[in-house]
Amino acid sequence: xxxxxxxxxxxxxxxxxxxxxxxxxxxxxxxxxxxxxxxxxxxxxxxxxxxxxxxxxxxxxxxxxxxxxxxxxxxxxxxxxxxxxxxxxxxxxxxxxxxxxxxxxxxxxxxxxxxxxxxxxxxxxxxxxxxxxxxxxxxxxxxxxxxxxxxxxxxxxxxxxxxxxxxxxxxxxxxxxxxxxxxxxxxxxxxxxxxxxxxxxxxxxxxxxxxxxxxxxxxxxxxxxxxxxxxxxxxxxxxx
Length: 240
Ligand code: UDP
Hints:
Elements: E1 22-26, E2 34-40, E3 43-54, E4 67-74, H1 89-105, E5 114-124, H2 129-143, E6 152-160, E7 163-166, H3 170-173, E8 181-189, E9 195-198, H4 206-232, E10 238-239
Parallel strand pairs: 4-5
Antiparallel strand pairs: 1-2, 1-10, 2-3, 3-5, 6-7, 6-8, 8-9
Helix pairs in contact: 2-4
């Protein structure tokens, strides 16, 4: 930890590289083709997958492969201030970044003219909802049997003043002292270790950036193990 940083102890007592308690469960919506829950601390994400099924209207179909559609939404009472339902700039951005990450691993060449819908709902939010949503979505897609090149595991890293942390909570995200808070959502491929999502809103040195990628990758490996354990035991809540 940087000695000059004003953020010397985490607000919830965690180590700087420690993820919040995780819960993961596959098969939470029996009528769906795939479904999963991924929870980290007070952030909870539910993903439901429908498809591959024929896409209507027909003019939207791709004759060469199936298409993937992502719809992310925070529920109205997921945070203290009620969220206005419907599309916002933020939800559009999150849909896009999740869709971009998933499109890289999902292979729908066997399903021309079809669609796979991924619905992500956030019933409770305490920062890191896009990465929790992505983790749940990948598990739901795997359960649905959608062909994928590899799994994805995502985590929100951050720099709180000068301190690098993993799995940023809302209190940390709102930190204003010193350099304030920089949120860095990251997503890694389970085999390739490729980065499929990286967003950075703020300033960070190259050394800190390299360090945070290492910390993020280690955390993603822990998350991957929990996702796999949940996939092997549908209906069972796996904790980590
Ligand atoms: N948030 C909120 N109201 C909103 C949007 C977000 O209270 O309209 C909170 C929520 O806890 C969310 C956090 O702010 O998890 C951080 O949001 P951000 O846009 O950074 O995305 P996230 O970290 O959830 O992926």
